Every structure is written in C-alpha cells, then in structure tokens.
Amino acid sequence: MVDSASTHRIATISVHAGNGIDRETGAIRRPLVMANSYALPADPSELNWSNTDQLFYARNSNANQLYLQSKLAALEGAADAVVMATGVAALHGMFFTLLNTGDHIVCSDVTYLAVYRLLTELLPTKYGISTTLVDSSDPDAVRDAIRPETKLVHIETPANPTTQLTDIEAVADIAHRAGALLSVDSTFATPILQRPLNLGADLVVHSLTKYINGHGDAMGGSVAGSTELIDRIRNECLVNVGGAISPFNAWLIMRGSVTLPMRMRQHCKNALHIARFLEGHPAVAYVRYPGLPTHPQHSLANRQLNGGFGGMLAFGLCGDADAHNRFVADLRIITSAVSLGHDESLIVYVAGNDERAHLYPEPFRKWGHLRFSAGIEDPHDLIDDLSQALAKTQPPTTQ
Ligand SMILES: *Cc1c(COP(=O)(O)O)cnc(C)c1O
Asked: Containing domain of residue 291, as a range?
C-alpha cells in the first residue's frame, strides 16, 4: 500500500496513494460512494457521535473524502490530512480551530483575498483575534511582528497574485522559537515543487480546486500536518461547523491528482517560456515570475522550489485599464476567468479596484496586473496568442 509512511517517489504516490480494491465488486478503482449515512453498529451506544474515523454520517466523514485524505497526506509527507469543501473552508477551519480570543497571528501581507478578509476583518470583529500583516519575504519583519500572544504564523508562498516568495525554513525557525506554529498555503507550488512540512512548517494548506484537481471542474481544500492538529481541525470544523466536501468532488479531485506530476512539468515549462517572451516585449511594463532572474526572490526560488518555478505569473502592460481590457478581449485561446491551475490557460485583469493594491509592489500599483495561469497547451500556441493580442495594443509603426 502506498501511504504517507511509504518511501515511494512522488509520481508513484500520485498514482497509487488512496486507491485500492473495492471489496464488494473487486473494482481496482475506489468507487464514488454517494450516501449521506452509513449502517450503524449493532450497539450504537458504543459509537462516539462526534468521531470522524468510523463512517456513519457524511458530514463527519465520507468514504471518498477518506481516500483523498490519505492521498494528500502521502503527497505532503504528512501523518494526516483533512479535506474540506473548498480551500477557503480549509483555511477558515485551520484558523478557527487554532485561534482563541486574545490570540495573535502574523500573516503575509499578500495572500488569497479571503485570508486577508478573515484575518483583518472577520476574526478580529467576531472573536477578538488580532493580526499583523508583514512582508514575509523579509524574515526579520516576521520576527519583529511576533508578540507573546502570537499563536500562528501564516504565509503563502508563492503568493497570490504577486508570486512573492517566503523562506519557509527561516520563518519556521522564527515561529518555533516564539512557541508559535507555522502554516503555509502551498497552492501555487503543489507538493510536486515544494513540501513545506520537510522545511519545518507545521501545517500545509491547499486549494484543491486549483492544480491538484487541475481540470477546472471540482472544488475542495485540504490541511495536512500532525495527527493531533488535523484531528482537532476535523472535529471542530467538519463535525461542528460543517464544511464537508461532497463525495463526487472528492472523487473528481482524486482522479485529477493522478496526473499532477506530469501536468506540473508542462505548467512550469509553459510559464517559463511565456515569462521570457513577455519580458522581452516592448508593450509589457513588467513581469513577475519566480523563474526569472529579475524576480526579487529568484535565488530563494532556486533553493526552495524543486523541478520548476510554477505555472503562475503576473505582468502589466504599458497602458491604462482600457488597454489591458482590450488586450484580454483580443486573446483567442487564453480565457478571461478567475481560478487557476486548470488544464487551460486563464487570465484575469485586476486594476486599481483591488482593496489590497497598496500592499503590492510598485509596478503592480502603477500598472495594475494581469494574473496569468499557464495551462498545459502547446507553449508556441500560447505565445502566438499573446503576441497577436499585444501587437494590437501598440500604435502602428509609421515608416
Ligand atoms: C484559490 C485559492 C484559495 C481558495 O481556494 P478555494 O478552493 O477557491 O476556496 C486559497 N489560497 C490560494 C493561494 C488560492 O489560489
């Protein structure tokens, strides 16, 4: 059996972990189990109604969720993992479980928007939890922000949408010296490029909606870490808050994740090609991609990311909002839509109407940004598409 204790390599884990033979039919793939209740034991008084191990009600746990949990734990090299309905449900579940009134959290200044809102608005107002946002690419800034009541340091690396990187090993050391835990949102990197638990993190979060599912059809989220921490999250946030994943979504993500290592290779290859092409184009104001030497944390990217620099980049055009919108409208293969990590390339233009724009680096503030999720198409077709749309943003050359 391929599980988290196995010494198999990541491509083998991606195929086999969590799969097995269905005892009733002999099917060699785990079936989709669409049932919200499971048969009770002969003497239900023996049952702990809050348990999440013994199947009896699909909010506490369902069969496809359990298969996917064991796969994600294996991919991250974790003792355990919990799977929830969305990435945000997983992030909320982790914060809600680990933090109490009076506690303090130090968080990357650039993270997924819902994390920013949860930590700067909702948890402070509702529960009296306080947050300090810091430029976590600077470990000293993290150290300076720590207080006696700091319970958790949360970072996103690479960060959405700026692709800023944080040194996981350095920040884990700072958090642990202060008696705090470190959680890492590793959605952009996936377990193929980075395994934060090996670098000292206590918890690793994924939006499974993105690369791990990879096909743009299902939503899910996960947290991986020690059995003790993951059990607490499961008990508080599945049993009593209810962010359970549907069996069908868990089944789709399980299926999509089989090809994760192959897909990541193509995402990385395409993104690097495109980043280099864009950086050399006169209509492009700036490009941020961890694989470019111009990226502020390029040397950290070389150390911390293995096998590629990810599929996400950000760039801006020498032009106003109208020019950016016209460029996006002129694209033929690349689709204008949110989300990321799909098989198809996606782009989204974010102008000045982003409430966190003041936290972004200078070129993002000046030009706005196009967040680009490089798909797994042929890179030449993607570059041709970008090229023809960029040509239209420039005034015709007169000779
Ligand atoms: C999309 C995303 C999330 C949220 O995930 P959902 O599945 O959409 O809830 C969290 N973190 C990062 C980095 C993301 O890109």
From this structure: 260-393
Number of domains in the chain: 2
Residue 110 lies in a domain: yes
Q: Are 267 and 376 in contact (CB under 8 A)?
A: yes
Looking from the CA of residue 340, the nearest atom of ligand 1 is 15
Which residues belong to the active site?
59, 112, 185, 210
Classify the C-alpha dihedral 28-230-62-114 as positive or negative: negative
- Are residues 161 and 35 part of one domain? yes
- Which atom of ligand 1 lies closest to the CA of 159? 13
- Per-residue pLDDT of 19-29, as tens digits, reads 999 999 999 99
* Closest protein CA for atom 1 of ligand 1: 207
Q: 352-398, pLDDT tens digit by residue?
A: 778 888 899 999 999 999 999 999 999 999 999 999 999 999 766 55
Cα(260) to centroid of ligand 1, in Å?
A: 17
Determine if ligand 1 sits within 6 Å of the CB of residue 222: no
Give the Cα-Cα-Cα angle 161, 266, 88 (nearest 5 degrees): 35
pLDDT digits (tens, 9 = 90+) for 259-282: 999 999 999 999 999 999 999 999
**Using CA atoms, how far apart are residues 396 and 399, in angstroms rounded to an integer?**
10
How far apart are alpha carbons 254 and 212 in whole angstroms? 8
Q: 235 and 280: one domain?
A: no
Count of CA atoms in the C-beta half-sphere (13 A) of 269: 11
Claim: this prediction has a pTM higher than 0.70: yes
- The pair of structure tokens assigned to 345 is 């390339």
69 pLDDT more than 80: yes
